[in-house]
């Protein structure tokens, strides 16, 4: 993990290459993401996490690398309370390097040590290394942030094989995105899981101004007649290309660079 001195990034290269060979070489301008979920107990753990992120992690990222980051708290998820963090980089080397630079930074180290001292800061965590798809938009803060932090829906689609994942990407990159945009669904990233649980999988994140806006957008998507046609064609071509879908809804924290 980015936040762990014993970074999981050390184990990524070989697995990343295995994934790339299954879906083709990565384009030179690909962005990569580290995504982490922190599962906590009710009590002081959520407050301690946000204290650390707002005063330690986010200022350090701005000071050292100016890397795009999204820090969120779950509002609907299998485990509550929960927080999630996504940090974007231009390369694996940059993300690996920032983990080392963070822990060499005095201010970050003080905040991190305070977060980890005393009672455990969280129960457990998951981490992913994600590669942006060629059709993924740029992951960056809004030029004019909204008055209130947005909601973010995290969706993970698990495919049986890398071949079927490629077909899933093909569907998303073609007709599905057009239907999304008509309905008011505008993801800020699409990615392939290169390291993490339940590979192969497609992970994407969608912002909404409100939960009501989310309901309206997904209702419009489901009612679009082209979606039924696209889904049938997809199944006819590749079978059930997504076996399982995991959905969690978060809200960005006020201090999050992307919110």
Describe the SSE topology:
Layout lengths: L11 H12 L8 E8 L5 H20 L4 E8 L5 E8 L2 H13 L1 H11 L7 E9 L18 E8 L3 H22 L5 E7 L5 E8 L2 H13 L1 H14 L5 E9 L7
Antiparallel strand pairs: 1-3, 1-4, 2-3, 2-8, 4-6, 5-7, 5-8, 6-7
> Which radius of gyration do the C-alpha atoms yield?
18 Å
Instruction: Determine the fraction of residues in helical runs and give it as a percent range.
Output: 40-55%
Provide the spatial order of strands within the biggest beta sheet.
1-3-2-8-5-7-6-4
DSSP strand tally: 8
Structural class, please?
A: alpha+beta
Described by strand count, sense and barrel closure, the largest sheet is: 8 strands, antiparallel, barrel
CATH topology: Alpha-Beta Plaits
Element-by-element helix/strand order = HEHEEHHEEHEEHHE
Q: Count of helices?
A: 7
Number of domains: 1
Short account of what is shown:
The protein is of the alpha+beta class.
């Amino acid at each position: 993990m980015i936040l762990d001195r014993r970074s999981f990034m050390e184990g990524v290269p070989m697995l990343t290459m295995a994934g790339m060979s299954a879906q083709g070489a990565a384009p030179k301008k690909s962005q990569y993401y580290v995504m982490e979920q922190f599962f906590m107990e009710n009590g002081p753990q959520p407050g301690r996490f946000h204290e650390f992120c707002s005063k330690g992690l986010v200022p350090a990222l701005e000071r050292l690398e100016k890397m795009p980051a999204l820090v969120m708290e779950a509002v609907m998820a299998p485990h509550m309370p929960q927080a999630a963090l996504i940090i974007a980089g231009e390369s694996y080397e940059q993300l690996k390097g920032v983990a080392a630079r963070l822990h060499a930074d005095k201010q970050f180290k003080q905040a991190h040590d305070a977060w980890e001292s005393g009672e455990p800061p969280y129960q457990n965590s998951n981490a992913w290394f994600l590669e942006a798809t060629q059709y993924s938009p740029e992951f960056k803060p809004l030029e004019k942030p909204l008055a209130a932090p947005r909601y973010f829906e995290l969706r993970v689609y698990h495919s049986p094989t890398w071949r079927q994942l490629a077909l899933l990407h093909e569907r998303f990159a073609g007709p599905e995105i057009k239907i999304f945009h008509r309905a008011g669904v505008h993801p800020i990233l699409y990615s392939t899981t290169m390291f993490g649980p339940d590979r192969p999988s497609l992970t994407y994140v969608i912002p909404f101004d409100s939960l009501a806006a989310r309901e309206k957008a997904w209702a419009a998507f489901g009612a679009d007649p082209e979606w039924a046609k696209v889904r049938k064609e997809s199944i006819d071509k590749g079978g059930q290309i997504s076996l399982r879908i995991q959905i969690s809804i978060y809200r960005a924290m006020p201090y999050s660079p992307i919110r």
